[in-house]
Specification:
Blueprint (H helix, E strand, L loop, with lengths): L6 E5 L6 H11 L3 E6 L2 H10 L13 H10 L4 E4 H4 L4 H10 L1 E6 L5 E3 L4 H9 L3 E3 L6 E3 L11 H8 L3 E4 L3 E5 L10 E6 L6 H8 L4 E9 L2 E6 L7 H10 E3 L14 H7 L5 H17 L7 E4 L5 H4 L24 E4 L7 H8 L7 H13 L10 E4 L3 H12 L5
Parallel strand pairs: 1-10, 1-11, 2-3, 2-4, 4-10, 13-16, 14-15, 15-16
Antiparallel strand pairs: 5-9, 6-7, 8-9, 11-12
Helix pairs in contact: 3-5, 9-15, 14-15
Amino acid sequence: MDSNNIIKVIDAPCGKGKTSWAIQHMNEHEGRYIFITPFLDEVNRTKQSCQGFKEPSDKKSSKMAHLKDLLDRQENIVSTHSLFSMADDEVLDLLRLGEYTLILDEVMDVVHREKISGHDIRLLIESGWIRIDEATAQVIAMDRFEPYKGKFDEIIEKARAGRLIYFNNTFLVWEFSPEFFTAMQETYVMTYLFRGQVQRCYFDFHKLPYAMLTVTGEYGDYRLVPYDPDTADLEFRQFAQENIHVYEGDLNDIGKTGLSFSWYEKYNRPSNRLLVRIKNNTQNYFRNIVKGKASENMWTCFKDTQTRLKGKRYTKGFVQCGARATNDYRHKKNLAYLVNRYAHPGIIQYFESQSVKIDQNLFAVSELIQWVWRSQIRDGKPINLYMPSERMKKLLMEWMSGEFTG
């Protein structure tokens, strides 16, 4: 197989120089590039650092229409995950014709379970808006005289794009087309702890070959080298040990078991004693333990319980527990991580149907590190962390000490 068709996964921690390598590479090597990042400031950085790169805009039409115009003109492009995830087959064909190199900054949401009940799926089928291909389980939007207008607009649109699967006649799975990673001249994915992430499972599920690399060197002389899980993040983990001050005390008693999504779902009722206790503990931590200003406090829980757990001195500092696409919280120094992270059971079932397994512990650490690094620690400054989940605290300590790696 042509080595260019093997996806290059650049696995390195925040601050190691992944984006700097990408800018250096795009400036030094001729070709057509599409650089996709979750960060708007990285979009601006790329436009400033790489001459001639264009960003899709919605000034004259939609961003997607402008993206297609730029691809048709074979421009170098920088854009966001959110726009690229909506790319259709026309975008795919334009990328293929342009012989583009894709550089993906951070993994994308490449597969997820749709929030629609089995009853509503059957209703759409019975009313003739969608049908299920018996051979592939693909959801197909039916042509009707009048277009669908209602609460399932997004489901119909995703079916029309050919991106939905009716898995085991049970639930809908949305998938980003794997062809976007094979149609390119070259593909690079830049992330950290890739082996614990859903996109690694997605590559294995679709049998997309990839090579693990990391970045070394310094400004102006960055290089890619083979990835060694024992040494690639050694300094990063040591820095984390010295600069993440994890709370140890009685406020952790609530986290000996539970705090997973299903646990919160079970107790998500007004004035539930356990949720009230978590809220009170969090308020106590921010007010009396770290005594931080409200502007310095950052917290997370599962979104469905956000309104029950918000409290004085921290409500406005909420950051979703899966957050990657923001640098807006790099001034936060006091953190409360109120969840026990697991991959979605439906997605686990989906991958396991092709004997692909996800390491739940490495997944949890990967998600935790991404969230923590939204704060001021990304600028080399220490942070305080309240994390009542006994499991998550144990995993963080094991990761920092090198007991398990990516």
